[in-house]
Amino acid sequence: MNILTRLILLLQFISCGSENSESQSEKSLIISPVKKSTQTPNNNSTSNIDSSEEVTKYSGYQLVWNDEFNYEGAPLDEKWHFQYIPIDQGGWANNEKQHYTKRRENSFVRDGTLKIVAKRELYTYKGINKSYTSARLNSKFDLKYGRIDVRAKLPSSKGTWPAIWTLGTNIGEIGNYYGNSEGNVGWPECGEIDIMEQDGTNKQLLYGTFHWSDTVGRQISSGLIKDLSSLGIADLTSEFHIYSLIWTSVSIKIYIDNLVVSELDNTALVPFDNPHYLLLNIAMGGNLGGDIPSNFKEDKMEIDYVRFYQ
Predict the structure, then answer these.
(1) Rounded to two decimals, what is the model's pTM?
(2) What is the rounded CA–CA span in Å between residue 208 and residue 26?
(3) Beta 146-153 vs 298-309: how paired, if at all?
(4) Residue 192 bears catalytic tag
(5) Is residue 179 part of a domain?
(6) Burial 162-190 (b: 16+ CB within 10 A, else e)
(7) DSSP 104-126
(8) 284 bridge partner residues
(9) CATH code of the domain containing 140
(10) 68 an active-site residue?
(11) How many domains in the chain?
């Protein structure tokens, strides 16, 4: 999300005290008549299914891809791609301060969870020095319509900007898993769904946002910022929470623990009718991460599981 959009969302943030009057900021949504939803499941290969533990079942959905992280070592190569080649002149978008790596120090599986670790350290990639490292993973599976559940515990340190999000597989972005095999439309034409972004300055703020390009090429962003108190949640860093996306041909809804964070009508005016893949990462600083404290050393996001349903 660019800095202008962040400022607009923050200026629109409304603080309310009661449970029923949720604290939120919202840009105008496009409203369309309700139409019947159609879902087209991907082929369900047994290699996509991790059966190491029981999974939640939902009426009308079947599990099509998952990782329960019940192993030790690097994230499974058949399921995850490390995206570490900078996409913006030796760096990353949104004024971020880190290099991403594929090193074990920045992402590994242990004790039943995936750890994505952001660290303060001098790191050089192709002659460009950065003072922080982290990891950015792409799922080697995409879907069009369905449900995604990610159970995660977020970093507590200021300056960290964790995200659970999707991009259209047709983006054609440098260094991502899909390359330009499914298209090369770029951003935001591909569409982006931010299932979870945590504010780097105020860890009580949770973002659920949609980005796209309209029919005449203008960048559009729409979403909500929720204060955790409005959701009855104490914090996101000491306990795991379930971040979910439910996406149909008529609507897209973002949840935390089955509580709605943000939603969008899915119409012909938005591009959310193409497959998307999942991204997991922690950025450092930047437009939403904010200032990084001088005493920051490292922090992590833990992922208990990732599950795709259709």
Answers:
(1) 0.87
(2) 10
(3) antiparallel
(4) yes
(5) yes
(6) bbbbbbbbbbbbeebbbeeebeebebbbb
(7) TTTEEEETTEEEEEEEEEEEEET
(8) 160
(9) 2.60.120.200
(10) no
(11) 1
Show the domain range for 236. 3-14+54-309
Q: Hey, what amino acid is at 32?
A: S
For strand 219-227 and strand 241-247, is the pairing parallel, antiparallel, or unpaired?
unpaired
Residue pair 283/163 in contact (Cβ under 8 Å)? The answer is yes
* Sequence-separated (6 or more) residues with CB below 8 Å from residue 31: 265
Catalytic residue among 192, 263, 298, 302: 192
CB 244 within 8 A of CB 61: no
C-alpha span between 254 and 246 (Å, rounded) = 7
Asked if 63 and 49 count as a contact pair (C-beta separation under 8 A), the reply is yes
CA distance 304 to 12: 33
> Is 107 within the bounds of a domain?
yes
Q: Which of 197, 263, 298, 302 is catalytic?
A: 197
| CA angle in degrees (0–180, nearest 5) for 249-26-227 | 110
Instruction: Work out the number of other CB atoms within 10 angstroms of the CB of residue 274.
Output: 17
Amino acid at 131: S
* 220 vs 265: CA distance, rounded Å: 14
User: Measured between alpha carbons, how far is 48 from 6 in angstroms, rounded to an integer?
Assistant: 36
CA–CA distance, 243 with 88 (Å, rounded to integer): 28
Quick: pLDDT tens for 82-138.
999 999 989 999 999 999 999 999 999 999 999 999 999 999 999 999 999 999 999
Could you read off the pLDDT of 204-217 as tens digits, one per residue?
999 999 999 988 88
Query: Does residue 26 fall inside a structural domain?
Result: no
Rounded Cα distance, 180 and 171, in Å: 7
Question: Token digits for 206?
Answer: 């949770």
Instruction: Identify the three-state secondary structure at position 287.
Output: helix
183 found inside a domain? yes
